[in-house]
Amino acid sequence: MHDVFIGIGSNIGDRELNCSEAIRYMSQKDIIIRSCSSMIETKPWGKKDQPDFINMVVRISTDKGPRELLGALRSIEAELGRTRKEKWGPREIDLDILLFDDLSINDPDLKIPHPHMLERDFVMGPLSEIAPDVAERLRSR
After folding, report:
1. Domain segments of the chain: what residues?
2. Closest CA relative to residue 42, chosen from 24, 27, 57, 23
3. Between 132-139 and 121-130, two packed helices, what is the crossing angle to 10 degrees?
């Protein structure tokens, strides 16, 4: 089983429900939810002229490889109504693979560790809440 951290965000509709539903959908796709951070409200990052987000991080276990997991997460996003219109634009749900074991992948459509992760308090705060050792290790690199 792989040890994976997923970033979850929503700024359209019932943001908290969208995040909770994403977790429920993950558990229906043979993804084991190990821990969940608190949900926090944050300002948008990148594209600022949009509603505030609810963000959180979940730690999961899965036997899926990185690409298979990415496909499952994109399927969940679609099921929850996400359409990809603009980079960093408003969205019902955003599911990002932050860390996948100790893998490093730099493909056009999949980057692990997630780029800009260390710059984003809405990632590092929730990550620190559920895995302080992992967050500290990342910060000390």
Report:
1. 2-139
2. 57
3. 130
Task: Please say whether the structural domain 2-139 has been given the CATH code 3.30.1360.70.
Answer: no
Instruction: Kindly report, residue by residue over 44-66, the tens digit of the pLDDT.
Output: 877 778 899 999 999 999 999 99
Q: Which residues are catalytic?
A: 82, 91, 94, 96
Distance CA 100, CA 60 (A): 10
Taking CA 73 as the corner, what is the angle to CA 37 and CA 61, rounded to the nearest 5 degrees? 55
The whole-angstrom separation of Cα 97 and Cα 6 is: 5
Cα gap 19→25, rounded to integer Å: 10
pTM of the entire predicted model? 0.93
The rounded distance, in Å, linking the Cα atoms of 120 and 141 is 16
